[in-house]
Every structure is written in C-alpha cells, then in structure tokens.
Design brief:
Radius of gyration: 23 Å
Order of helices and strands: HHHHHEEEHEHEHEHEHEHEHEEHEHEEEE
CATH class of the largest domain: Alpha Beta
CATH topology of the largest domain: Aldehyde Dehydrogenase, Chain A, domain 1
Shape: globular
CATH architecture of the largest domain: 3-Layer(aba) Sandwich
Structural class: alpha/beta
Strand content: 15-25%
Helix content: 40-55%
Number of helices: 14
Number of strands: 16
Distance between the termini: 53 Å
C-alpha cells in the first residue's frame, strides 16, 4: 500500500468516527462552532493573507492564467466575505431532522421521511481557497464530516484557512477530525479518495473539466459533479434594449473567471438593436467571436469557429450568434450548453415561460444576469458548487444538498398479516 493510500484510509477512519460523534451534536453547538471559526478567520487575517501571497508568487512563476490567479487571490475584502459566509451558514436553518413528509397508513402506521446527513464527504477542488471554508462550514452545519483536498496551487492558503477553521471547531467542543485537509500535493491522494468506498460516502469535485472527468472516470463512490459553465443568454426580439445591454455586459464582464459567467450570446435575428449591444461588450474590453451575421455588426469582431460554441472561456472572450427565434436558441443551447445556467431577456411573458419550461438547465433565468448563479445570491449561504446533473441535488448545492433522508415508521404494535 502506498503512503497516500494509507493516509486517506487513516483520514477516512477518523472522519467516520467524527461523523458518529456529530450525530449527537445539537444545532446550537454546530452554529457556535461556525461562529467561532469565522472569528478565527478574521483574527488570523495576516497569517492567511501572507500564505496566499506565497501561493500567488508561486502561481505567477508557474505562469497560471489570469482567471486562475483571480480565483486564487485573497485580499482583506475577500477574506471578510469568506468569514461572513461561514457566519451566515451558522444562522441558516438546520436541515437535519426536518420532516419532508408524513403519512398515516390505514393500519395506523405513521410514515415519515426525515432529513439526515450524507455521512463522510470528500471534496476535491482547484484554485479557490474560499472553498476550504465554504465546504467545511456547509458540511459541519449539515452534520457531515468532510475530507478536503485542494489544488497544489493553493496549498498554503488552504492550510491557513483550515487551521483557523479547526481552531474554532475545537473551541466549540466538536471533534477536530470532523474537518480534515489532505496536506500533500501527491496526486495519488486524489486517486485514493476516489477508491475509498466504505470510508467516503460521496465525492464532490469542483474544478476544471480534466479534474471532473478524472473523478467521474475513476470514482468507486457516488459523485456529485459540476461540469463546465457554458452559459447562454438569449436576447429575444422583444427585449428591452437597456436591460439587454446591462445584463449582457454584467453577465460576461463582472467576473469573467467564475462558472456563472456568460460564454455565448444568442441574439434574435428580429431584435432591432444588435449593433449597440455588441458595441457595448466590445467597448467594455470583451473580444467577440461571431458568426457571419454578427461579423457585419462591427469590424472589431472576429470569426468564430466550431469549437467556440463549446468553450468555457473564463476570460473576456464571448461567442455570439444570430438565431431565428426561441426554438433555434433552445436548439443551440441543447447542442452546446452544459446544463448550468441559461437566460432569456425579453418583455414577452409567454416567450419567457416557454423558454423556462423547455431549457434543460439547472438554473434558468428571465431578465437577470447569469452572474447570480451563486448559492449566496440564492439565499443558501455558501455553496459547494453548482450541480449540473439530475440526481440528488441540482443547481447550487448548499445545506439541503448535503443531506439525504431516511424513513421513520412509528407504530403501536402492528404486525403484518
């Protein structure tokens, strides 16, 4: 057995023991632990920011992309947002123990479906140090133990955030092993997590396509996956022109490196003002790659090739196409989208409802920026990621998404005839 394999086995056993202890922890204790963790994140700001600077220096030396650097970077403002997110999770309603439904059978048996934690969660992620705090907070609040494995590019930042979080957890009387961080950069540790059936109950990958594909290909435990954010905005022929410009520019350019950023803009061929729309995007610093009809709108536009429609740029680059009505827009999305977030901009309520009904995406929006595809914006607090699958949880995965249910049957002595 290799050293990484033994490491994950040991961590898994500790996590299972911690999970068993968490089942007897009160809601108030879990909330107190997260409030303490948030306080320690703030108290250790200088240590965390110094660790992040070391990661940033190394990342620049490795020539990581601007979008990766943006995801990696922590400043005082972002650290405060991380701590505030942990604090917010502490005041959210505890899903554990909630009765989903209750029925009484003719024989008097009372049947209940009750929310329970998933167990031990393994989370494998890249770049974003905030995931260390978000994932730990959500897992703990929902009664789960968690094993975190971040990317090598953020190892210093993740370690500093982890240390602060665990200090708060222990201070509140919860088991330290409820939150564990794999602190080796050996990629074999990832493979060991994927094969840890019986120790880890579910794996959640959060990162690029290659990471998610590896997890899905190799995992011997269930996977809750988040694939590309190839998000579309369709500008209907009846769209308000000011709304269309504001939404499109924000959706693309607010932060280009997040999974909620728009990557393809579809403009109805009967929309009366495509020129001002694309010029606003170009003037904001966005490169536009368009089809033949779009190329005629501005000389700065370059020709798109087939690969552009299937690309998550995570950069100030946008593919743009003209489409013949909502049916063609939906067909384009079905062929090239990733089932993440798709948006229609229109003042036609019937058209909007048609789009909402037929778009097969985890998140569908009407007259709003795709950058709202975020658990915090949904009122869910921090999030583990956006699930683009169809089973268990879909869209922003927060507290409820980290629970399952069990049946509880209450009788008065019934026996089956």
């Amino acid at each position: 057995m290799t050293e990484p394999e033994q490491l994950i086995i040991d961590m898994g056993r500790k996590a299972r023991a911690a999970f068993s202890k968490l089942t007897g922890v009160s809601d108030a204790q879990k909330a107190a632990a997260l409030k303490a963790a948030a306080r320690h994140l703030r108290d250790n700001q200088s240590m965390i920011l110094a660790a992040n600077q070391r990661d940033m220096k190394s990342a620049r030396e490795r020539d990581l992309s601007d979008s990766m650097l943006d995801r990696l970077m922590i400043d005082a403002e972002r650290l405060e947002a991380i701590a505030a997110a942990v604090e917010h999770v502490a005041v959210l309603p505890d899903p554990v123990g909630q009765i989903i439904d209750r029925t009484e059978r003719p024989n008097g048996l009372l049947m209940e479906r009750v929310r329970v934690p998933l167990g031990v969660i393994g989370i494998i992620y890249e770049s974003r140090p905030n995931v260390t705090a978000d994932a730990a907070a959500l897992a703990l609040r929902s009664g789960n133990a968690v094993i975190l494995r971040g990317g090598s590019e953020a190892i210093q930042s993740n370690g500093a955030i982890f240390d602060a979080m665990v200090t708060g957890v222990v201070e509140a009387g919860l088991p330290a092993d409820a939150i564990q961080l794999v602190q080796t950069t050996d990629r074999a540790a990832v493979g060991a997590m994927l094969k840890a059936s019986g120790l880890i109950d579910i794996i959640i990958p959060r990162g690029g396509k290659s990471l998610v594909k590896r997890v899905q290909d190799e995992a011997r435990v269930p996977v809750l996956a988040h694939l590309d954010g190839i998000n579309h905005i369709y500008i209907g022929k009846d769209a308000d022109q000011d709304k269309a410009i504001a939404i499109a520019v924000n959706a693309k350019m607010r932060r280009t490196g997040i999974c909620g950023a728009m990557e393809t803009l579809l403009i109805d061929q009967d929309y009366p003002a495509p020129g001002p729309l694309v010029r606003a995007l170009l003037d904001s610093g966005c490169e536009i790659r368009g089809d033949d009809a779009v190329l005629e709108l501005d000389e700065r536009i370059v020709s798109a090739d087939e690969s552009d429609w299937d690309t998550e740029y995570l950069a100030p680059i946008l593919s743009v196409a003209m489409v013949d009505g909502v049916d063609e827009a939906l067909a384009h999305i079905a062929e090239h989208g990733s089932h993440h977030t798709d948006v229609i901009v229109t003042e036609d309520a019937d058209m909007a409802e048609n789009f909402i009904l037929r778009a097969d995406s985890a998140i569908v929006m009407h007259n709003a920026s795709s950058q709202f595809a975020d658990g915090g914006q949904f009122g869910l607090g921090a999030e583990i990621g956006i699930s683009t699958g169809r089973l268990h949880a879909r869209g922003p995965v927060a507290l409820e998404g980290l629970t399952t249910y069990k049946w509880v049957v209450r009788g008065t002595g019934q026996v089956r005839p």
